[in-house]
Write a structure and sequence with these properties.
496 residues; alpha/beta; Arc Repressor Mutant, subunit A; Aspartate Aminotransferase, domain 1; Aspartate Aminotransferase, domain 2; 3 domains; eight-stranded mixed beta sheet; four-stranded antiparallel beta sheet; 16 helices; 39% helix
């Protein structure tokens, strides 16, 4: 059970102007706090002397309130431990006066009106995702955490933690620390041919926040947005949170079908796209399609949100240049992330913003969560400047290439006639198509029960496709885990 350090005094509210005696106000406050669950069974409360001093009142009314609470069984005292909320109070007693919540569904409170939320919140992409209930092999978007260079990283963290300055502890720039913005601009310029300077870099709390901020800056409610179908579910969430009207556009071997999008919504306000490594199918958008998309966006006055989430890892050829590198009309907003290159808990990403939009993006970032951790921005800056970042990427290409090979070989050996591998040329995941009559969500739920975490391909579509499949992440799964996981998955395909 939780314990309250005796130096912490709860925010007890008393009013000397009220006709009710102070001891009674104290009694009612503690009783209400216990019944509402704010003070829980076994939690320590301040001593009478400490509480009286904190409230600036005589100790006598505090003693009177505590005596009444003891008499009614709300408090109990232990030798050497002080006074605590009575541990004999049942857990359900603390639900009195709180709205009833069953199975995550809000019900009307017995003490007020309906528990209302916005209609928009209720429309954000929601599906049954029971296959994500536990960690296991093949979780997508997870890098090889076992291969991360912990020693130099810890050294850099310690360096900055020991030399922490007042500036690092104060409020930071919503656009990010200047040193990291400069390092990021140099990196995307060299690695992805993105033409920008540091003033255009906005550091974010991961790429998901970058997508959400871009959507809120660029879109008004009900604006039409082309979205790849299938697409990254997190992008759909961000667009829906901004009130956008999504227009699903099919993806084929050349990427997003621009002609289909132009017929469906010729005056769309924006496009969300993953051109270098389409999520989840893995195809690369052809040069013709890229030029056609840029031409349409320029003529239509539309924005292109390019999510370049794992372009560092391409195995069968050199990395593909970004769509942003072909943009002559400043229509592309480029979103990148450090999470998949380093580790997800870092929560650092970046957006390359057209210069005329920088003030609006900065204001929206300030309204979101002000700024990202200055400590970790400083650490990542040095990680890049001292060469650890580039070395890590080079080494991880070899690691992921081997893990991809092991996964493809295992799938062919254990389930070759039941799974058709596609999109295995890059990134940290691949897709595999099932036979037309197989329900991919059912397979994913069976697999989760065996500790294998695969994502059903149909969960990435707006409408269920004619043929389902599985998305398997291999970045964070070791070769031995891959082999064992595929064997377990093969049994699930048999219905076991």
């Amino acid at each position: 059970m939780p314990r309250l350090n005796p130096s912490f005094v709860p925010p007890v509210a008393i009013d000397a102007r009220r006709a009710i005696p102070i001891y009674r106000q104290l009694y009612e406050w503690f009783r209400s706090a216990i019944l509402a669950g704010h003070l829980t069974p076994g939690q320590r409360v301040p001593s009478t002397r400490q509480l009286a001093a904190e409230l600036g009142v005589s100790r006598i009314p505090v003693l009177g309130a505590y005596e009444q609470l003891h008499a009614e069984g709300y408090l109990e005292t232990f030798v050497g431990a002080g006074t605590c909320v009575a541990r004999s109070i049942p857990e359900r007693a603390t639900l009195i006066g709180r709205p009833s919540l069953r199975h995550g569904s809000p019900r009307a409170s017995t003490s007020g009106g309906p528990r209302r939320t916005s209609r928009l919140a209720g429309t954000i992409f929601q599906t049954d995702q029971s296959w994500l209930g536990n960690p296991g092999a093949f979780r997508i978007s997870l890098p090889a955490l076992d291969q991360f260079p912990v020693t130099p990283w810890v050294r850099l963290v310690n360096r900055h933690a020991r030399r922490v300055t007042r500036a690092m502890m104060a409020y930071g720039d919503p656009m990010g620390e200047s040193a990291l913005r400069e390092a990021s601009a140099e990196y995307v310029g060299a690695a992805r041919a993105v033409q920008c300077d540091a003033s255009q870099i906005m550091v974010t709390t991961g790429s998901q926040q970058g997508l959400l901020i871009a959507a809120r800056v660029l879109l008004d409610a009900r604006d039409a947005v082309w979205v790849e179908d299938p697409a990254y579910p997190g992008a759909r969430q961000a667009l829906l949170a901004a009130g956008a009207r999504m227009v699903p556009v099919p993806v084929d071997d050349e990427g997003l079908d621009v002609a289909r999008g132009a017929r469906a919504a010729p005056s769309a306000r924006a496009v969300y796209i993953t051109p270098s490594h389409q999520h989840p199918l893995g195809v690369t958008m052809s040069a013709t399609r890229r030029m056609t998309l840029l031409d349409w966006a320029s003529r239509a006055g539309a924005w292109i949100i390019e999510d370049d989430y794992d372009s560092e890892y391409r195995f069968d050829s050199r990395p593909i240049a970004s769509l942003h590198s072909m943009d002559a009309d400043a229509r592309v907003i480029y979103v990148g992330t450090f999470s998949k290159v380093l580790f997800p808990a870092l929560r650092l990403g970046y957006v390359v913003v057209p210069k005329d939009l920088v003030p609006m993006f900065s204001a929206m970032r300030d309204a979101s969560d002000v700024f990202s951790s200055t400590l970790y921005q400083a650490v990542v800056t040095d990680f890049i400047r001292e060469g650890h970042f580039a070395r890590h990427i080079r080494r991880m290409r070899m690691v992921y290439m081997e893990r991809r090979r092991v996964l493809v070989d295992a799938l062919r050996k254990e389930a070759g006639d039941r799974l058709e591998v596609i999109g295995a040329a890059a990134g940290l995941h691949l897709a595999a198509l099932l036979q037309p009559d197989v329900n991919d969500e059912a397979v994913a739920r069976r697999a989760a029960k065996h500790g294998v975490l695969v994502t059903p391909l149909s969960s990435c579509y707006v409408k269920r496709p004619a043929r389902g499949g599985l998305v398997l992440g291999y970045g964070g799964t070791t070769p031995d885990e891959i082999r064992d996981g595929v064997k377990a998955l093969a049994r699930c395909l048999d219905g076991r």
